[in-house]
Amino acid sequence: MALDAPPGAGSGESQQPTVLPPRPANNAASVTAGTGATVFNPAIETTGDIVLRRHLISDEQLNMLAGENRDGLSEAFWAFVAGALGSAPSALESLYGSYFQKPPIPLTLVHLLEVIILAICVALGIGVHFVRSRRTQRVEDLVEKIKTRAAQ
């Protein structure tokens, strides 16, 4: 019988909710049925502590924690910048020779790969910078929320 169904629904007879043994020590949740009886539900388990512990942290510690960068996005951003700067001279020389020099020098496969590497490094660098700036903003917002919560 479903716990949210009214008594007697479906079978024509009135059924009472089954009351299972008391809640065990592994923090399994219990559900209150429509009749007010508490029913143990082994399918729902909580894994956290029953009592939430409050942690005290100073503003200096909070700012130090927010300033740490452990996600590796900064390193990836600078790697893409270095790749773009390293491939830029040869790629720009190839483009200049192909489009602005008279007579034009045709793009070979190597020149085309240089231009593609430059474009990929620039695109990925911009993408990583966008993601990194959003994460930094989220951390700063979280620090402000914690500071305002501590002031209350």
Write the layout of secondary structure elements.
Elements (H helix, E strand, L loop, with lengths): L27 E5 L5 E8 L13 H9 L5 H27 L9 H43 L1
Antiparallel strand pairs: 1-2
Helix pairs in contact: 1-3, 2-3
Report on this model:
- This protein has a two-stranded antiparallel ribbon.
- It contains three helices and two strands.
- A hairpin with a 5-residue loop joins strand 1 (28-32) and strand 2 (38-45).
- The radius of gyration is 31 Å and the shape is elongated.
- The longest helix is centred in the C-terminal third of the chain and has 43 residues, at 109-151.
- It folds into two domains: 1-53, no CATH class; 59-151.
- The chain is mostly helical.
Task: Write a compact overview of the structure shown.
With 152 residues, the protein is mostly helical.
Question: What portion of residues belong to β-strands?
Answer: 5-15%
Helical proportion? 40-55%
**Terminal Cα span:** 47 Å
Number of strands: 2
Number of structural units classed as domains: 2
What characteristics describe this protein?
152 residues; mainly alpha; two-stranded antiparallel sheet; 9% strand
